[in-house]
UniProtKB/TrEMBL annotation:
Protein name: Peroxidase
Known cofactor(s): heme b; Ca(2+)
One of the record's GO cellular component terms: extracellular region
Species: Hibiscus syriacus (Rose of Sharon)
Transition state stabilizer, annotated site positions: R78
Length: 337
């Protein structure tokens, strides 16, 4: 799930990018509630005078890190999702102490902490105790998406950092086996909707997951039963890829794993969703119309992904003069003063 190499599996040669339209389909029949684009205390010009060089610092540092390890881009997206879906976008996932979210079992495979620490250290040299770790993680996630070939969006700033982090809270992050109903309830509890669920699941256009995370699905058919929700040829590939255990990694998008595109949704139509939660988006009557729209109009995915990412970064933010929170000077620790 958005919050969890080898030979590429390619079936037919259908070009899903052909025939893109300039106009986006409307989701008039879907339950898309009206929401504010971002918190009242957040603004695009929040750091224009406070720290005008912020975005340049983030961009330069991030490009340097990803040039050395391209997989860090997808890791930062996952880190941001984990942060926002636990107690809101508050950088609580970055706190590193006994009993913190970062120490939880569900967080063991998270990466990118050093990248945020490095950016933060550079920002502190120019703008002491001014820019929150939450805002840095949010902007770095946007820039990582762009580096991957995804869309650009403007990030509203002004978030504060949490002073607490609880290991047990990390258990609320989906693990890839939930039903669509369970996921919808989770998203709705965060102020997100059905379209956000489908579109943000599309982050699996890039990134990998461990064989250990899909053992229950890949090998359940070895005892005489067959998983009808997964293509036979793809299943055969996964069983061969993961036969040695959970240390191997598998691309979440089997056909274009290094390209930020809508191929992820076309894979679902072919029963090639790697995670159970992904494949269920195609089999559930509530999410299927959105999946089909994203298959039929690939450009819609880029547009809506940017919209949903802004909405994601608005979950339970700490902002404004009366909110608890602080501007951490070290993202791993609460300020001592």
């Amino acid at each position: 799930m958005i919050f969890g190499h080898g030979k590429h599996v390619v079936h037919d040669g259908r070009a899903w990018g052909d025939g893109e339209q300039d106009s986006f389909p409307t989701f008039s029949t879907l339950p898309v509630p009206e929401t504010r684009p971002f918190d009242d205390f957040l603004s695009f010009d929040y750091y224009h005078q406070r720290c005008p060089q912020l975005e340049q610092i983030i961009s330069t540092k991030l490009k340097s890190w990803i040039a050395k390890d391209h997989t860090l881009a997808a890791s930062l997206l996952r880190l941001h999702f984990h942060d926002c879906f636990v107690t809101g976008c508050d950088a609580s996932i970055l706190l590193n102490h006994e009993g913190s979210e970062r120490r939880a079992g569900t967080s063991k495979t998270l990466r990118g902490f050093q990248v945020i620490d490095d950016i933060k250290a550079e920002v502190e040299k120019s703008c002491l105790a001014t820019v929150s770790c939450t805002d840095i993680l949010t902007a770095a996630t946007r820039d990582a998406t762009v580096i991957l070939g995804g869309p650009y969006w403007r990030v509203p700033y002004g978030r504060k950092d949490s002073t607490t982090s609880n290991e047990k809270d990390a258990d609320t992050v989906p693990i890839g086996r939930e039903s669509v109903t369970e996921l919808l309830e989770l998203f709705q509890s965060k102020g997100l909707n059905l379209v956000d669920l489908v579109v943000l699941s599309g982050v699996h256009t890039i990134g990998r997951t461990s064989c250990g995370a899909i053992q229950h699905r890949v090998f359940q058919g070895l005892n005489g039963t067959s998983d009808m929700s997964i293509d036979n040829r793809y299943l055969d590939y996964l069983q061969r890829k993961c036969r040695c255990g959970g240390d191997e990694y598998v691309d979440l998008d089997a056909t274009t794993p290094t390209t930020f595109d809508s191929q992820f949704y076309a894979n679902l139509e072919r029963k090639m969703g790697l995670l159970s939660t992904d494949q269920r988006l195609y089999s559930d009557s509530r999410t299927l119309p959105v999946v089909n729209a994203l298959i039929q109009t690939p450009s819609l995915f880029r547009h809506q992904f940017a919209v949903s990412m802004v909405r994601l970064a608005n979950i339970q933010v700490l902002s404004g003069p009366h909110e608890d929170g602080q501007i951490r000077t070290n993202c791993s620790f609460v300020n001592s003063y």
